[in-house]
Design goal:
481 residues, alpha/beta, nine-stranded mixed beta sheet, eight-stranded parallel beta sheet, 10 helices
């Protein structure tokens, strides 16, 4: 029987997708590969090895088309790191169709090929990322920089203050959490949502974990299961939480948040004592912490606190917070609750009166000093380079047509971010002429030798914003172990 064409069902992005290794085996039995009775000749490497795509999400299951560099159109065994998959030949692409196996953590793995008991072609690599949009340029985080930062923070950290790590970067929160816990021996990890807390627990993080913001009452059984603390910001939530907790038999630890001038989570100071009393009256709630968030910390705040300058924003917030804490403790409540308010800026400026019992450190774990030390590597390539004639329109409305011929380069799929991005080509930062997200046009006037395929480094100010914007669906991987 001769070779038959394999019909591989399309996925949501229009690729010809094989849904599972089992499905591939079924296709083979149906005659989609060489006849099972035929003797396959030994595979011989004849070209370069390539994967399309060369990266994908941790969940696996996506189609990877492999050019093995061999002359075989029979089935091949492909090893992604420690995992093996069987891949059939796909006539439409003239490649072997593989289904990427899942992996637990982001990173790059070695990929090798074998057929008929012999190696095929050279080895190559496949990069696993967080569940970002795979069309967006891949961003790599150097975990060794995070580790060094964590070790340095712990080495200089005040011995009588607990260390809380704040992880609001988004994925891979489990990797960040393990690296920071191992290097800094943190007492707490604070995260914005329950999913992050679950990821940390399942990664083996043993420190106390608290969700910074109020949790859904329906999620309380999960909080109990994963031993996660949560914010208490309203007596009505306390009442609803107690009703659920009464069915579990356990006690949920909560942190009472006081809004002292941030306009975010927490009750105003006058309502702190009634909320503490509501927590005390709930048999299945335990007051583990009392917290606030300073809005405008500066290097001058230490001196302003010494002279009690109430015109200073931080002094005003501190006085409100101290008053709320005093009212709770004067009522005999929260005697063992941790008091925490300061973040990285408080530690950086060494404002001792704001240390309290615990400091919540976030951005300092992710600081770097480019170009000598770079935490993030975010690159793409010039998809197209061309020269626009004089008088050529750029962007809708044609508000600023070119006054002379202008060399430009196009890049694609750069998500909008809350902080400004910069683009560097050939060692020179280049201006953005047009930004439509899916397409950006860069001014290459100062890079006359730039060509399609040249690397574009995408950067954001480490001084202004250390951490990733977790709202952007970036595919993130890690380097450095």
């Amino acid at each position: 029987m001769g070779r038959q064409n394999c019909e591989i069902a399309p996925d949501g992005r229009g690729h010809r997708l094989v849904t599972s290794v089992l499905a591939l085996s079924v296709l083979a039995l149906a005659g989609c590969a060489q006849d099972a009775g035929a003797d396959a000749p030994p595979a011989v490497a004849s070209g370069s090895v390539a994967l399309s795509p060369s990266h994908g999400g941790l969940q696996g299951g996506n189609l990877v088309l492999a050019d093995t560099g061999g002359d075989t159109d029979g089935p091949v065994t492909v090893r992604f790191g420690e995992e093996e998959v069987e891949c059939e030949f796909d006539d439409r692409s003239s490649r072997h169709a593989c289904v990427a196996p899942a992996r637990g953590t982001p990173g790059t793995v070695e990929v090798s090929f074998a057929a008929g008991g012999s190696d095929v072609g050279e080895k190559t690599a496949y990069t696993y990322t967080t569940q970002g949009t795979q069309d967006i340029p891949l961003l790599t985080v150097d975990t060794e920089t995070v580790r060094r930062n964590a070790e340095a923070i712990r080495a200089d950290f005040p011995s009588d203050v607990q260390l809380g790590a704040v992880l609001k970067n988004g994925e891979p929160v489990d990797v960040f959490g393990k690296v920071i816990e191992d290097a800094a021996k943190v007492d707490y990890v604070f995260v914005p949502k329950l999913d992050d807390a679950i990821a940390l627990r399942e990664a083996g993080v043993e420190a106390k974990i608290a969700v910074l913001y109020v949790a859904q009452v329906e999620d309380i059984p999960l909080l109990m299961h994963y031993d996660v603390e949560v914010a208490a910001t309203d007596p009505a939530w306390v009442e609803a939480a107690e009703q659920v907790l009464s069915t579990t038999g356990g006690a949920l630890k909560v942190h009472l948040w006081v809004d002292t001038g941030m306009g975010r989570e927490g009750v105003v100071p006058e309502e702190a004592l009634p909320l503490a009393q509501a927590i005390e009256d709930a048999p299945h709630l335990e007051l583990a912490g009392i917290a606030t968030h300073f809005s405008t910390v500066t290097a001058e705040d230490g001196a302003a606190i010494e002279r009690n300058d109430t015109a200073n924003t931080t002094v005003a917030q501190k006085n409100r917070f101290d008053g709320a804490v005093a009212s709770i403790r004067d009522a005999g409540l929260g005697k063992d609750a941790l008091i925490h308010a300061g973040a990285s800026d408080v530690l950086d400026h060494e404002i001792d009166p704001l240390y309290y019992d615990l400091l919540r450190i976030g951005g300092m774990f992710f600081a770097s000093s480019p170009p000598e030390e770079r935490l993030y590597s975010w690159t793409t390539e010039l998809a197209q380079v061309k020269t626009l004639p004089a008088g050529w329109c750029i962007d809708y409305g044609c508000t600023e047509p070119t006054t002379a011929p202008k060399k430009v380069g196009l890049i694609n799929h750069i998500p909008s971010r809350e902080n400004e991005l910069t683009y560097t080509v050939g060692g020179k930062q280049v201006p953005v002429l047009l930004d439509h997200g899916t397409v950006l046009t860069l001014d290459l006037s100062e890079v006359p030798d730039a060509a399609a395929g040249d690397e574009v480094a995408i950067d954001f100010s480490a001084e202004a914003f250390h951490m990733l914007d977790a709202t952007a669906p970036l595919p993130v991987t890690t380097s450095g172990g």
